[in-house]
Amino acid sequence: MQVPVYLGGEIQFKMNYQHDLLLYNEDELKVIGSVKTSSKDRIDKIFMDKFLYNKLTETAIPHIAVFLTDVQRKNTRRENSYSINSTFLTGHFKAFTVKLNPLDGVYYCDIRPNMQKDNLLKQHIRTIDHFFCTDVWRLIESEFGR
């Protein structure tokens, strides 16, 4: 997408910016989203995308993240035996949520147990069905912007 860069309420120039998901209500951009297979090595960028986009455009467009899962297969000590390891960076997620800017929705197809137990995580992370059944409608009908 072409992102207008504002200074003092006036467009100075436009820059290219790639996003996985753009949700519009009629012709108005309402939500920007990232859709990833896992948050590992990607979560920092999503928080920064929200921060930078909203600073550059002088808006408050909601940013969401959708993740398939946050596990990877690992070899055990036994031959041809595998287990799974979580790849979710809890400390990064909490730090960026508290100190930078919380995302407007974080959704998992396969939510991890700690995301349902930890008080901060369960406030900010939901299952993907919550997005489709509730939040998508709330986000695209809300008034955000300049």
Structure description:
- With 146 residues, the protein is α/β, with parallel strands linked by helices.
- The protein has one domain (21-43, 60-141).
- The chain is 34% helix and 34% strand.
- The chain contains five helices and nine strands, in the order ββββαβββαβααβα.
- It has helices at residues 43-57, 90-99, 113-117, 119-124, 128-141, and strands spanning 2-7, 10-16, 21-25, 28-36, 63-67, 71-75, 82-86, 105-108, 125-127.
- The protein starts with a strand and ends in a 5-residue tail after the last helix.
- The mean pLDDT is 89.
User: Which range does the strand content fall in?
Assistant: 25-35%
**Chain-averaged pLDDT:** 89
Low-confidence stretches: none
Helix fraction bin? 25-40%
Strand order of the largest sheet: 3-4-5-8-9
**Count the strands?**
9
**SSE order:** EEEEHEEEHEHHEH
Head-to-tail CA distance between termini: 18 Å
Question: What gyration radius follows from the Cα positions, in whole Å?
Answer: 17 Å
Question: How would you sum up the global shape?
Answer: elongated
**Which structural class do you get from the secondary structure elements?**
alpha/beta
Query: What is the number of independent domains?
Result: 1
Number of contiguous helices: 5
Main β-sheet, in a few words?
5 strands, mixed
